[in-house]
Amino acid sequence: MAKTDVSDPKALKEAVRKYLGEFPGDLICALQLWYEGLGGQGVPTPAEMAAIESEIAEMPGFKDVGGVRYEKFGVQKSYKISLAQADVKDRKMIQHIFKRDGFYKEPDGKVLKVITSELWNLRCFEFSGGKLVGPMIKIHPESDRAKALVEVV
């Protein structure tokens, strides 16, 4: 993913709207969006955080809910989307579908071990010869690739 130039208001607005339009969760913070949606690396500056928060706040249906503790990010100012009741029933608890430390086989026979199961992605490694091999693989939990995984018992 190419890094979005946060100092360019038009590019930032487009990237935030695209990411949040596809985001499967209902709670987000600017730091999560920085890393997962904008390709950010390192620590964003206060000005970058303010710009991202401003864009999230302007998104229809998103409401500032104050500080929320995240496992990866600590306490962050967060925004929650107001979901219609019909949308709520369609959302799945990804953690119940893909088990942390679970093994899943892809159609090509490759076995993956899920290291982290989050709303926005599965973080996996290929498992071969009794150990993890290769780089970390990120898979969106609602993608065709994720739907094709079969749990190895």
Low-confidence stretches: 85-93
Strand-residue proportion: 25-35%
Class by SSE composition: alpha+beta
CATH fold type of the largest domain: Arc Repressor Mutant, subunit A
The DSSP helix count reads 6
CATH architecture verdict of the largest domain: Orthogonal Bundle
Radius of gyration, in angstroms, nearest whole number: 17 Å
What is the residue-mean pLDDT, rounded to a whole number? Answer: 82
Give the distance, in angstroms, between the N- and C-terminal Cα atoms.
33 Å
What string gives the helices and strands in order? HEHHEEHHEEEEHE
Number of strands: 8
Instruction: Please give the share of residues in helix.
Output: 25-40%
**Order of strands across the biggest sheet?**
7-6-5-4-8
Give the topology, please.
Blueprint: H1 9-22, E1 27-29, H2 30-37, H3 46-58, E2 62-70, E3 74-81, H4 85-90, H5 94-97, E4 103-105, E5 111-117, E6 122-128, E7 131-139, H6 144-147, E8 150-152
Antiparallel strand pairs: 1-3, 2-3, 4-5, 4-8, 5-6, 6-7
Helix pairs in contact: 1-3, 2-3
What would you say this structure looks like, in words?
The strands form 2 sheets. The protein has a 5-stranded antiparallel sheet with strand order 7-6-5-4-8. The protein folds into 2 domains: 9-90, Arc Repressor Mutant, subunit A; 94-152. Mean pLDDT is 82; it is low at 85-93. The protein contains 6 helices and 8 strands, in the order H-E-H-H-E-E-H-H-E-E-E-E-H-E. The two termini are 33 Å apart. The chain is elongated, with a radius of gyration of 17 Å. By secondary structure, the chain is an alpha+beta fold. Strand 4 and strand 5 (111-117) form a beta hairpin.
